[in-house]
Every structure is written in C-alpha cells, then in structure tokens.
Design goal:
The chain is of the alpha/beta class. It has helices spanning 12-21, 44-55, 70-75, 77-94, 111-125, 131-136, 190-193, 210-221, 241-253, 308-311, 346-362, 390-396, 411-416, 444-456, 461-465, 476-488, 492-505, and strands at residues 34-40, 60-64, 140-143, 146-150, 153-156, 159-168, 172-174, 202-206, 225-229, 257-259, 263-269, 275-280, 286-290, 292-295, 299-301, 315-316, 319-320, 333-335, 375-377, 382-387, 400-406, 422-428, 434-441. The chain has 3 domains: 12-84 and 114-174 and 300-370, FAD/NAD(P)-binding domain (3-Layer(bba) Sandwich), CATH 3.50.50; 182-297, FAD/NAD(P)-binding domain, CATH 3.50.50.60; 381-488, Enolase-like, domain 1 (2-Layer Sandwich), CATH 3.30.390.30. β5 and β6 (159-168) form a beta hairpin.
C-alpha cells in the first residue's frame, strides 16, 4: 500500500513540489555504521531534529514514507494561510466603501486563480524541506516505510539501519469522528481540501475549531454559501468565551451560517445530488443540502506500521507515550511533535525537537513541561492565546487577577476600523506574575509573542508597563494593560499618603 499523498491537480506547481519533497527518482543511500540519531517522520519535528542534530556534528538518518514537510507544508499551515490571504483581500475590496474607496464593478473572484497562487507559493517554499537540501546538510535521507526491529535497529524497505538514539516524529492525520451517515457520502479533510479547483457553491463544514472557522470565513469571503456546524461548546471551544463571541459575530457578518450545537448530526446523499445535512438544536434544527463537506475535527496519531509493539514502545489512541524528557518507554527512543503532544502546532513540534536533541545527544535535562506554547487562529479578527484562561485557571485551582484593554479604546484600532477585540492578561492573584493571556484582533498572532517572552523570562506586568511602545500601534494595548494593573496599586491609603506629601511640598 502506498502512503504517498496524492498531489492534485498535477500541474507544474505540484510537480515541482513533489520533485522536492518526494522525488520519484530518489535513490536511498547505503547505511555505513551506526547513526547517532535516526529520525522517522519528515514533518516539522522530524526535520528540526534531523537538521539540528546534523548541524551539531551528529551522524543522522531521516526516514519519510510520504511527503517531506509533513502536514504544515503540504496540507496545513502553508496552503491554508495562502487561502486566508486571498480571502482577506476579497473582504478588503468588498469593504472599501467604508473608507471612501469606490470599487465601480464590485468584487470579481477567480477561485481557480487563488488556488493556483497557493500551489505556486507552496512549491516555492518547498525547497526548504526538500530531500536534496537535507542530503546537502549531511543527512542520509531514506524515502520509504520505517519499522523498528529492535531497540537499536530499524528497517526501511528491506534495508536495516543501526542507531544509538531514534526519534519518532510521524505526526497525526485527519480522522473523522463517528457521525451518522458519514460513510455514505464523500467528504474533504485538510488533506484533500487544497486540491479543489472549483469553489463549492454550498459548503458544509463540521467543526468550529481553528481549521473550521478559518476555512468557513475564507470560503464565505471567496463566494461559497457556508454552513458551519459548531459543537455544544460553541465557536473555538478551547478559547476564552469572550473571544468566541467576537469571532461568531465576525463570521456571521461574512455570511457564514452557524448551525448551533451539532446534536443528532446526520448525513446522507441528497435526492438530486450533493449531501443532505441535518442537525437538531434548541432552535428547532436545520436541514440543508450542500455540494461539498469538510470535516475539520478529529486527529489520529500515525502509529501504524512502525513496529512499536515489537520493541515495547507504548502508545494509545492519542499517540506515543512519553515522559517529561520526551523519552518513550524505550529510553533511547524519543518522540516529538503531533505523535505525542497535546499541542498540535508547528512551533510546538519545533521546540519539542530542540528538547529531544539536547536530551538524546548531550545528556540534557530539558523538560517538555517547561515549554510555554502560544497558539493562534488566523481568522479575522485573529485569536491568540498563551497559558491559562479563566476556565483553565479554575480547573487548576489557580487564583488569578485579570486586566483587559479593549481595542475600542485604542486610537490605531479606531483609525483602522478594527475595534473589535481586546488584550486580556491574567496574573497570579496579588502579584504581577503573568500566567496567561488572550488577544483578539488584527495581528494577535504576532502580538502574543511579547506575552510569551514575558512569561518565559519572568517579566512581570509592572515591567511591561514601564516599556515604551510606539504610538499609535495596536501593540500599545499590551502596555496599557500594564497601566491598568498599576492603577490597582494606588489604594486609598497610598493615595492619601501621596496627597499629604504633595500638600506638604507645595
């Protein structure tokens, strides 16, 4: 069985992509001696582990059965952000009238051209993850299925490699949850969505997490009539409810039909073609016929065919079991990325890989639990998060104080017409120690880095208050939160003492 992800349509851009990330004429090298590190899986975690280890002088082998670059390059971050960028331009032209800009003939969208642009840019980026590049870094690149045959050996297409350490970085794949009738209809996942060349006229999306809301908004802006089925927990259920409420309004403004609560969801072939989608809810339910369906919920770890059982590596339906040093139950075999992480993000995989390099090759003591991992949803407005929010703080028994700056009070946001959103920062109660934050608004994904830096290096909210930010910027909202915190320190007793002093010095 071939594990090679089909690249459709097979145009010049996808041919270029394949020639980089899985060249059909690739000849696997002949192993020579023991490797310091064998990496199985060529997504972000695997590529960072392989390149980082080789750069430090290790002898490294990299094994990939499908496309180097993994989900991020091929069916995730890269193509989705290209589509989001096209959709944003369409919305800006549509809304230009609000800024006194008149577009005489309205917006005309060429979906096929937007998708071709995505494929071109993806192929332009692909040399960074190419087999040739990693070979030039001194890494032995093997294309094929890897299977552990012992604690220090792995087989690739009949060739045995010997290693001192190994890293499992095989990631995860789309896995649809049990939905009544799903097996009776054709549907898309993130692995097939970006092969579309015609826009669905009526597009159903199941799942209101990051992928679901990003694609719902983008396809609505590009011309689809979108029906987004949310769960009982609402839009972006892992986020602060205030963030979900703002994003819901934005989606509805863009024309997304939000089908509430996702109970008794049923799918079946439509009588005249298409897919019939029915949902029961407190509002009475919905019954829609759609042309295409995207299932944007559910992930399964890629553990099959690796021989994990044969060598005693424990795993479950959520992935490979690791300790805080990212060791599996076989101590010289590590794991990193989506195969073992609750945080299925490219940047999380990157830094887990760095932890593995230090621990496996240099007797390091890096802990996965020490990583402070932000994340962002690239909707409009963006939603970014790090650390705890009020719900998770309560679950952890952590007392917090929360300080919020609304963008409606920020001059730059007012002038840009982007007043929906806020910076909300949580500190340990009675202190200025930052334990979490949520930012909703333009470029929130960029802004959250400042909060993550402060948390990592234990910079309190009081010191952020004292840091000059340029005016007028959206980022200035973070400093203003510091000002709000500082005002809480001006207790009646302190103010009375200051008033007395000032009166005496007059």
């Amino acid at each position: 069985m071939s594990h090679l992800t089909p690249l459709l349509p097979l145009d010049e851009h996808n041919q270029k992509l394949q020639s980089n990330v899985h060249p059909t004429d690739w000849v696997n090298p002949t192993p020579d001696g023991t490797y310091n590190m064998v990496v199985i899986g060529g997504g972000t975690a695997g590529l960072v582990t392989a390149a980082g280890a080789a750069g430090l002088g290790a002898k490294v082998a990299l094994i990939e059965r499908s496309l180097l670059g993994g989900d991020c390059l091929n069916v995730g971050c890269v193509p989705s952000k290209a589509i989001i960028a096209a959709a944003k331009r369409a919305a800006q032209v549509r809304d230009a009238e609000d800024f006194g800009i008149h577009v005489p003939e309205g917006v005309s969208i060429d979906f096929a051209a937007a998708m071709e642009r995505m494929r071109k840019l993806r192929s332009d980026i692909s040399p960074h993850d190419s087999a040739q590049r990693f070979q030039e870094l001194g890494i032995d690149v093997f294309l094929g299925q890897g299977k552990f045959t012992g604690a220090h050996t792995i087989d690739v297409n009949g060739t045995e490699l010997t290693f001192k350490n190994a890293t499992i970085a095989t990631g995860a794949r789309a896995s649809a949850p049990p939905i009544d009738g799903l097996d009776t209809v054709d549907y898309l996942t993130n692995e097939t969505l970006f092969s579309l060349t015609e826009i669905p006229r009526r597009f159903g999306i199941i799942g209101a997490g990051p992928i679901g809301v990003e694609m719902a908004q983008s396809f609505a802006r590009l011309g689809s009539e979108v029906f987004l089925v949310e769960s009982s927990d609402g839009i972006l259920p892992r986020e602060d409810p205030d963030a979900g409420a703002i994003l819901r309004k934005s989606l509805e403004r863009d024309g997304v039909n939000i089908l509430c609560c996702g109970r008794d969801l049923k799918l079946q072939p439509g009588e005249g073609g298409g897919i019939r989608l029915t949902v029961k809810s407190d509002k009475g339910g919905y019954d829609e016929t759609i042309d295409q369906l995207l299932v944007a919920v559910g992930r399964a770890p890629n553990v099959e065919g690796l021989g994990l059982e044969d060598v005693g590596i424990e795993y479950s339906k959520t992935g490979v079991t690791v300790n805080d040093k990212l060791q599996t139950t076989v101590k010289n075999i590590y794991a990193a990325g989506d195969i073992c992480s609750n945080f299925k993000f490219t940047h999380a995989a990157d830094f887990m890989a760095r932890t593995v390099i230090g621990n496996a090759l240099f007797l390091g003591r890096g802990k996965n639990s020490d990583l402070i991992i932000p994340w962002a949803t690239y909707s409009e407005p963006e939603v970014a998060h790090v650390g705890v929010n009020p719900r998770t703080a309560q679950e952890e028994g952590l007392a917090i104080d929360t300080y919020t700056q609304e963008f409606s009070g920020m001059d730059r946001a007012i002038l840009s017409g982007e007043t929906e959103g806020f910076v909300k920062i949580h500190v340990r109660s009675g202190t200025d120690k930052i334990v979490g934050a949520t930012i909703v608004g333009a470029n929130a994904g960029d802004m959250i880095g400042e909060i993550t830096l402060a948390m990592k290096h234990k910079i309190g909210l009081g010191k952020i208050k004292d840091t000059i930010h340029p005016y007028p910027t959206i980022g200035e909202a973070i400093r203003k939160v510091g000002d709000i915190y500082n005002r809480t320190r001006l207790t009646p007793r302190v103010k009375a003492a200051m008033t007395k002093w000032l009166k005496w010095t007059r």
